[in-house]
Automatic annotation (TrEMBL):
One annotated GO biological process: DNA transposition
Domain Transposase IS4-like: 14-98
Protein name (record): Transposase DDE domain-containing protein
InterPro entries documented for this protein: Transposase_11 (IPR002559)
Lineage top rank: taxon: Bacteria
GO molecular function: DNA binding; transposase activity
């Protein structure tokens, strides 16, 4: 959590942490929940053996969809890069391409050619 930056706000406003942190059952540990609480966030983590994964479905779908888009780039899915800086560079490029393709598909970049 310490490596994450706070959410960016419009100019003149201070950065702040998100209100909730969603996680799957792999993060269901007291230390994880306490770390989230110390930062003033609400831990929305599925409990092992109690809560089904379908309860977090609508939140989890967004993350799973994004991971699927990124995994379509073979270089990222196979992790050929040895240096983390190279990997994060290719990850940033992949995210930029995903956003560009989505904008083209939604006709946000072609103002003169409405569909």
């Amino acid at each position: 959590l310490d490596s994450l930056r706070a959410v960016r706000q419009p100019l003149g406003r201070p950065r702040r942490w998100p209100g909730k942190l969603h996680g799957d059952k792999g993060y269901d540990y007291r230390s994880c929940r306490e770390a989230v609480r110390r930062r003033g966030m609400i831990a929305r983590i599925a409990r092992k053996g109690i809560e089904s994964a379908t309860h977090l479905g609508r939140h989890r779908y967004v993350i799973e969809r994004c991971l699927e888009w990124v995994s379509r780039f073979r270089r990222l899915a196979r992790r050929y890069e040895r240096k983390a800086s190279h990997y994060t560079g290719f990850l940033s490029l992949a995210c930029a391409l995903i956003c560009y393709r989505r904008a083209v598909r939604l006709n946000l970049l072609t103002r003169n050619n409405p569909k």
